[in-house]
User: Which sequence fits this backbone?
């Protein structure tokens, strides 16, 4: 890959891997929660069925968003061919918002990586 934009190269090789680690942790967490919601959905009574369905749908939507962002920001993605730091910042902000939309909030395993990514790319 050619690197005519030195600043983007710094972002690509520095804070971006931390963001990808954070996305992977979030994906695993969401998968676990979605699987738990699926199991709960199978055993709930009629009264709780609607709530269980809503919970399962919530986790499925979050998983879809994380997978989309992983594909977008992955190292071999065409997204990086443009080398646009503004688009990269917008994507980092989207990941940060997604992380804070989790009911449990950011877990310590990935919170530090997210702070590094935000500090290096957004601020």
Assistant:
């Amino acid at each position: 890959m050619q690197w005519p934009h030195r600043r983007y190269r710094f972002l690509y090789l520095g804070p971006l891997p931390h963001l990808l680690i954070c996305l992977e942790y979030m994906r695993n967490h969401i998968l676990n929660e979605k699987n738990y919601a699926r199991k709960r959905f199978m055993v709930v009574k009629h009264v709780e069925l609607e709530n269980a369905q809503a919970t399962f749908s919530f986790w499925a939507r979050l998983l879809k968003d994380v997978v989309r962002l992983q594909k977008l920001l992955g190292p071999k993605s065409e997204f990086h061919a443009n080398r646009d730091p503004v688009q990269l910042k917008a994507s980092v902000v989207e990941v940060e918002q997604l992380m804070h939309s989790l009911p449990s909030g950011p877990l310590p395993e990935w919170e530090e990586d997210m702070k590094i990514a935000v500090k290096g790319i957004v601020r």
Q: What stands out?
A: The helical segments are 6-13, 15-43, 49-73, 85-100, 108-122. The chain is about 75% helix and 0% strand. The mean pLDDT is 88.
